[in-house]
Amino acid sequence: MFPAASLLTIILLALSIAASPFQIRDSPITLPIARRLNVSDGSINLLQYDKARVAALKAGYHLGSPPVTNVASYYIAKVGIGSPPTAYDLIVDTGSSNTWVGANTAYAVTSTSVNTGQPVDVGYGSGFFSGTEYTDTITLGSGLTITKQSIGVSSFAVGFSGVDGILGIGPVGLTEGTLTNSPALTIPTVTDNLHSQGTISQGVDTNGELTFGGPDVFKYTGDIAYTPITTTKPASAYWGINESITYGSTTILSSTAGIVDTGTTLLYVATDAYNKYKSETGATLDGATGLLLVSSTQYSALKNLNFNIGSNTFSLTPNAQIWPRSLNAPIGGSSKAIYLIVADIGTPSGSGFDFINGYTFLERFYSVYDTTNSRVGFAKTSYTDATTN
Ligand SMILES: *[C@@H]1O[C@H](CO)[C@@H](O)[C@H](O)[C@H]1NC(C)=O
Ligand SMILES: *[C@@H]1O[C@H](CO)[C@@H](O)[C@H](O)[C@H]1NC(C)=O
């Protein structure tokens, strides 16, 4: 069980998986997802969780697989597997690509379960799972089934208390090496299998949703601006893009590569960019939370933080640059303080991995992960300029 997890409905994350954006089906398939904050002992060290993931993501391209475990906050989807389906709570992860179950609820073998006998292993930096590959029917949301989807069934997992496993929606290349007897093989992901198997379902509106099949036009305003996956390593192994960042009109990070990641909570930038942001805002480092702290006067003077992606600019307003004040206490902060969500990635720019647009960025925009055309898209939503923090 998950002792002190809370379901948070602060803001909508419109996360869309566009398996085939030019082949729009009658209506997209949506899967409700819920945000969970992993508060096990009353307070969480947000930075410690995030930094373990950042370090492992940076190193992951050598190992074939990135981390997802011990994250401070993550998105959970209820996914049905088997026939009749058993419901599992899976972490929705754009930073890894294997789908697996069995960490908590035991995998229920049904008539659609086929044991391939292949050992499967994924190391996630601070945790891992090890088990056997099956193929089975997966049910997403209320209407979509995928048959013969490869899944891992865990016989041993570390670092996944309170969840059943992962729905991995990263690029397929991240599955390479995970079938240990055939390390050169990749495993078609859930997104890959949707190409030929998509069906129709009515939309479901909750605090977040994952849209399969094509962008959901009701969830964003204006156009979706697409940008190609970066060619710069190591960001290119993930949903990596090129962008530059300006604070007001001051450039804090020149055009460089980094990634978009649902499993990272904060917004990470290279050390030099972080230092510029810190001096521009006048923020100080808060010892208790490890986050940047501003006074209410400094908060009133904040300028937009602009992400220049291709020919488009996506701006985080001052309110979007602060940690939700209602969640100050769970991260060990003082309830009236104003903390910023910009954090130091720990290496100077030029590393090929100079930023992570984590969910504090993603919750303000609609994002599309287009496997077919190897590109990421962003659009504004009605939450982009919200003042909910
Ligand atoms: C939640 O936090 C606990 C305690 O730090 C950790 O053992 C567990 O693996 C975390 N759960 C997830 C899904 O990250
Ligand atoms: C991204 O930036 C790198 C380094 O400047 C450049 O070589 C590359 O062409 C850019 N675009 C893509 C899609 O990688």
From TrEMBL:
Give yes or no: UniProt keyword Kinase: no
Keyword entries, A-Z: Aspartyl protease, Hydrolase, Protease, Signal
Task: Report the PROSITE patterns cross-referenced here.
Answer: ASP_PROTEASE, PEPTIDASE_A1
List of catalytic residues? D93, D261
Q: Name one GO molecular function term.
A: aspartic-type endopeptidase activity
- Keyword Cytoplasm applies: no
GO BP term, example: proteolysis
Classification via PANTHER family: BETA-SITE APP-CLEAVING ENZYME, ISOFORM A-RELATED
Q: What is this protein called?
A: Aspartic peptidase domain-containing protein
